[in-house]
Write a structure and sequence with these properties.
The structure holds 2 protein chains of 2 kinds.
Chain A: E1 6-16, E2 28-39, E3 44-49, H1 55-62, E4 70-75, E5 78-79, H2 85-94, E6 95-98, H3 102-105, H4 112-122, H5 128-141, H6 158-170, E7 176-180, H7 188-205, E8 208-212, H8 216-222, E9 225-230, E10 233-239, H9 250-257, E11 306-307, E12 313-314
Parallel strand pairs in A: 3-8, 3-9, 6-7, 7-8
Antiparallel strand pairs in A: 1-2, 1-4, 4-5, 9-10, 10-12, 11-12
Chain B: E1 6-17, E2 20-32, E3 37-42, H1 48-55, E4 63-72, E5 75-76, H2 82-88, E6 93-96, H3 100-103, H4 110-122, H5 126-139, H6 145-148, H7 158-170, E7 176-180, H8 188-205, E8 208-212, H9 216-222, E9 225-230, E10 233-239, H10 240-245, H11 250-257, H12 297-301, E11 306-309, E12 312-315, E13 324-325
Parallel strand pairs in B: 3-8, 3-9, 6-7, 7-8
Antiparallel strand pairs in B: 1-2, 1-4, 4-5, 9-10, 10-12, 11-12, 11-13
The chains are: A alpha/beta, B alpha/beta.
The complex binds adenosine-5'-triphosphate (2 copies) and magnesium ion (2 copies).
Residues 55-56, 100, 180 of chain A line the site of one magnesium ion.
């Protein structure tokens, strides 16, 4: 197999928590817990899961806007922490991020022209006149136009701000974009335009996307593979066509059963129990307190990754690797 | 039918730019009845947030109401003074803003921000307020509430912030809650929990809700009725299933065809060609004319009147012959 464009190997991110700690020992929020992921050139991986499960944190580690507590991020096989300053600068041009909350990520004191051309300025590209042309071009790509150049972010609607953030991310022709809820403020027709644009760019430049979204209809339409997060861990990953009847992890099943659509009325798997706490995650499987299929082992032992086939990985005690079999001939273990 | 709780009539709102005034909302008329959940959908930039800001008396400084009325329980809000409007906000009408960070103070802890609002509405002592705050945080599904009480907004995930904003909006037990994309940052299971909470408020406290969202699945799940806006106008309105099954306005039809779906994988999504005219470019005639594949001559020149088909209303010349004027 070819080298992945990007790889996360057992990445963790722990934040010191605000909890007043017992006996003065600091406690930690395990925002991301042992996440391993690979992204190949030209593909789109959808990252879905619980709110607060660590998706944005994972995205920001990938773009190295925050550094991981442990684990390694590889880009084309090299560890990004070993990059020299010069390499890092070149790399930052190739890897872009569209933030979840455009209001918080766009500089409120600057006009749209300044914001969208900033990456060009930082990377010393083009003259002023050329920059303006390029800015207008990308604004038009995202369904805006030159009339927005002299506006401030607060003078735009939510979806217009979001499109400014997308324009800023694509202006440098990156190789990889983390799109964190990047189309979620858009009505479906503008969203369709943006998704078509992202696909076109992908086809033309072999762009790779990590696409974080709660909109499971968009995920199913747009992504080649999905990874489902729960409490800092990736509990299942595989090809998008698993969705439907082939998802294995009980959390992933519950999540997709709750997806509201316009043409069906599904029976929803209701999740009982308290919302989990990443400060004191449960022992064993993080999902076991809410899992209808939990067994005794689930509360004491952490499940490890089970490779059901080459692309389908699930972290759950219900399934196990049959000894002696190669990774792609694994049967479902019988309870 | 009972009296509407909120009735907006012929509302026009304009922005003042250096070179003149430009209309951003034109002829907006709709009502919300007690215990009703009304959805608003429409193209990004069409004026959904602006409409809700007008109802709350929170228009940006360069915008103003040119004409029309906004009646709440029969009182016209447009003529209120700032103080009067202040007393309505939060207790009679409350708002969940589109981007959580627009309404949270980055320098104050979550606990403090919720408590301040609670104090204003209840007058309890600090200890009780703290307990109430934590109970409220749990009610909207926030995990580790005791700890997040001491956290700052940047330490929360997007969906956690959104739940804080929802919690704050529910404190005053307002009769009308305007929720602007309130669940976009929530995963579908928590989203359902919040939608359930809204439905419960409707049942137990007769709360009405205006629900702005682009997510038709969610709209279908909670709304009784839906309003479709385009370029500052209301173009269609009706019961949600009716609009989904039989959209009349070409814009609504295009919108519904653009809904992403697994079955459309591998092919480009349907889009509506062209883009919404900028404020300065808006002229008379039908606002959708430049992008409409079914346009006729009259659409260029004459603004279409509203037509009623039962409880389904549409503003489009295609239906001129068929229905009753409103
Ligand atoms: N700077 C920080 N300090 C402390 N805790 C943090 C910080 N940033 C994030 N967290 C915590 O890390 C966890 C994961 O947050 P993250 O933003 O990655 O979630 P998410 O999956 O993107 O959620 P959402 O879907 O709601 O956006 C949350 O519990 C959050 O409170
Ligand atoms: N302060 C302002 N000055 C000038 N124009 C503004 C200002 N605020 C908003 N606008 C414009 O008014 C129009 C309506 O904005 P509004 O925020 O109501 O849109 P919206 O329907 O909520 O869109 P979205 O779905 O993208 O949030 C937009 O075209 C926007 O650019
Ligand atoms: Mg997030
Ligand atoms: Mg808006």
């Amino acid at each position: 197999m070819s080298t992945p464009l990007l790889e996360l190997d057992k990445v963790q991110k722990h934040y010191k928590s605000n909890r007043s700690s017992f006996l003065g020992k600091p406690s930690y929020v395990k925002a991301v817990n042992s996440v391993s992921l690979r992204l190949f050139e030209g593909e789109t991986l959808g990252l879905v899961g619980e709110s607060g499960s660590g998706k944005s944190t994972t995205g920001q580690i990938i773009a190295q806007l925050i550094s991981q507590t442990s684990g390694t991020v590889f880009y084309k096989g090299s560890d990004v922490t070993t990059f020299t300053n010069k390499q890092m600068k070149a790399w930052r041009k190739k890897v872009q991020i569209v933030f979840q909350d455009p209001y918080a990520s766009l500089n409120p004191k600057k006009k749209i022209e300044w914001i969208v051309s900033e990456p060009l300025v930082i990377h010393r590209i083009r003259t002023k006149v050329e920059r303006r042309e390029k800015v207008v071009e990308v604004l038009e790509d995202v369904g805006l136009d030159a009339s927005y150049l002299h506006r401030y972010p607060h003078e735009l609607s939510g979806g217009q701000r979001q499109r400014v953030a997308i324009a800023t991310a694509i202006i440098l022709n990156p190789e990889f974009i983390v799109i964190d809820e990047g189309v979620s403020a858009l009505d479906v027709s503008v969203q369709a335009q943006i998704l078509n644009l992202l696909k076109q760019l992908q086809n033309k430049y072999k762009l790779t996307y990590l696409f974080i979204s709660h909109d499971l209809n968009v995920i199913q339409y747009f992504c080649d593979r999905i990874a489902v997060m729960y409490l800092g861990e990736i509990v299942e990953q595989g090809r998008t066509d698993l969705i439907g009847s082939n998802l294995k992890h009980p959390y992933a099943q519950a999540l997709f059963s709750a997806n509201p659509t316009v043409d069906e009325n599904k029976t929803q798997i209701v999740l009982g129990g308290e919302v989990p706490n990443s400060g004191t995650p449960p022992a064993g499987c993080p999902f076991h307190p809410r899992c209808a299929k939990a067994m005794e082992t689930c509360s004491s032992f952490k499940p490890s990754d089970v490779h059901l086939n080459q692309t389908h990985v699930v972290r759950c005690h219900l399934y196990k690797t049959i000894e002696g079999n190669s990774k792609d001939t694994i049967e479902e273990a019988i309870r | 039918m009972s009296q509407p709780l909120l009735s907006v009539q012929n509302l026009d709102v304009s922005f003042t730019f250096q070179d003149g005034d430009y209309a951003a909302l034109k002829n907006i008329s709709f009502s919300v009845y007690p215990k009703e959940i009304v959805g608003i959908v429409g193209e990004s930039g069409c004026g959904k947030s602006l409409t809700s800001h007008a109802i709350l008396g929170m228009l940006p400084t360069n915008a103003m109401i040119k004409k029309g009325s906004i009646q709440y329980r029969g009182t016209d809000l447009v003529s209120l003074t700032n103080e009067e409007w202040q007393s309505i906000r939060g207790s009679a009408i409350s708002m969940i803003f589109q981007e959580p960070m627009t309404s949270l103070n980055p320098l104050l802890t979550i606990g403090r921000q919720i408590s301040e609002v609670l104090k204003k509405h209840t007058g309890f002592c600090n200890k009780e307020i703290k307990e109430m705050t934590i109970a409220l945080m749990k009610e909207v599904g926030l995990p580790r509430a005791e700890e997040l009480y001491r956290a700052y907004p940047h330490q929360l995930s997007g969906g956690m912030r959104q739940r804080v904003v929802i919690a704050i909006a529910l404190i005053g037990e307002a009769d009308l809650v305007i929720a602007d994309e309130p669940t976009t940052a929530l995963d579908v299971t928590i989203q359902l929990q919040i939608l359930e909470l809204f439905r419960k408020l409707k049942q137990t406290r007769n709360t009405s809700l205006v629900f702005i969202s682009h997510d038709w699945g969610v709209i279908r799940k909670v709304c009784d009725r839906v309003i479709v806006m385009y370029a500052g106008h209301i173009v269609e309105e009706g019961p949600i299933e009716e609009i989904l099954q039989h959209p009349k306005h070409p814009y609504t039809q295009g919108l519904i065809q653009s809904i992403p779906d697994y079955k459309k994988r591998g092919e480009p999504l349907h889009t509506i060609p062209g883009r919404v005219p900028a404020l300065r470019e808006r002229r008379g005639g039908c606002p959708f004319v430049d992008r409409c594949s079914l346009r006729m001559d009259i659409c260029q020149t004459t603004y279409p009147e509203g037509k009623k088909h039962g409880n389904h209303q549409v503003k489009c010349h295609l239906y001129a012959q068929e229905a009753i004027n409103i």
